[in-house]
Amino acid sequence: MRKLSIHELNRISTHQFKDADKLPIVVVLDNVRSLNNVGSIFRTADAFRIEAIYLCGVTGTPPHREIQKTALGATESVVWKHYTHTIDAIQELKNNKYTLIALEQVESGMHLQNFAPQKNNTYALVFGNEVSGVAQEIINACDSCIEIPQFGTKHSFNISVSAGIVLWDFYCKIKTTNQK
Predict the structure, then answer these.
(1) 3-class secondary structure, 125
(2) What CATH number belongs to 20-178?
(3) How far apart are CA 84 and CA 88, in angstroms?
(4) 46: helix, strand or coil
(5) Cβ contacts of residue 9 below 8 Å, gap of 6+?
(6) 120, 146, 153, 171: which one has the fewest Cβ atoms less than 10 Å from its Cβ?
(7) Residue 89, by phi and psi: left (phi above 0), alpha (psi -120 to 50) or beta?
(8) Helix, strand or coil for residue 123?
(9) pTM score
(10) Helices 159-178 and 35-47 sit at what angle, rounded to 10 degrees?
(11) What is the per-residue pLDDT across 12-42, written as a single tens digit (0 to 9) for each?
């Protein structure tokens, strides 16, 4: 087996990305402090061709050197908006008929593997602050909460890891659902 060169990866241009069909998902970052996490989520969002990222509250915005370090240019391809208050982003998404799902450990939450996206639905996935998670006000406004099952002592992933796991899971399930 031979490692592929960068030229063999068939990458699309930023212009082609903007015109391409997107996964019907908006990622909402609720007061994410780490600019490296923000950049990493941009890069993951680009990889799965999601619709947009909504950066809320204290979440950093491009252009910023620390975001660019991990985004590697994905801030140029992925559409993003900033909201001073997360609840404003949530309300806009509700008004546009998105199903709002927080990634959080809550009473009666659903494990990620048990969630089945509905065909032709649009989703907003809310990821929270590295220490305090998704604010309760935002959880209250969401349609449901999912969590990634964990079996170690920490019961938390880094937010960029969580976003990668959840976006991959949604990508696989949505692509399968929409092919039926």
Answers:
(1) strand
(2) 3.40.1280.10
(3) 8
(4) helix
(5) none
(6) 153
(7) alpha
(8) strand
(9) 0.95
(10) 20
(11) 999 999 999 999 999 999 999 999 999 999 9
Distance CA 72, CA 161 (A): 17
Query: What is the CA angle 151-34-90, rounded to 5?
Result: 85
Beta carbons within 8 Å of 111's beta carbon, 6+ residues apart = 146, 147, 148, 149
Q: Is 105 exposed, middle or buried (0-12, 13-18, 19+ CB in 10 A)?
A: middle
The C-alpha atoms of residue 153 and residue 130 are separated, in whole angstroms, by 17
Tell me how long the chain is.
Answer: 180
Structure tokens at 158: 């880094």
What ranges do the domains of the chain cover? 20-178
**Tokens describing residue 48:** 């799965």
What's the rounded Cα separation, in Å, for the pair 48 and 45? 5
Query: What H or E segment, with its residue span, contains residue 102?
Result: strand 99-103
Taking a C-beta distance cutoff of 8 angstroms, is the pair 100, 27 a contact?
A: no
Let me know: does 156 contact 127? Beta carbons within 8 Å.
no
What is the rounded CA–CA span in Å between residue 52 and residue 65?
A: 20
- Residues 62, 35 contacting (CB under 8 angstroms): no
| Collapsed DSSP state (helix, strand, coil) of residue 118 | coil
Q: What is the pLDDT of residues 67-79, one digit of tens each?
A: 999 999 999 999 9
Beta carbons within 10 angstroms of residue 54's beta carbon = 23
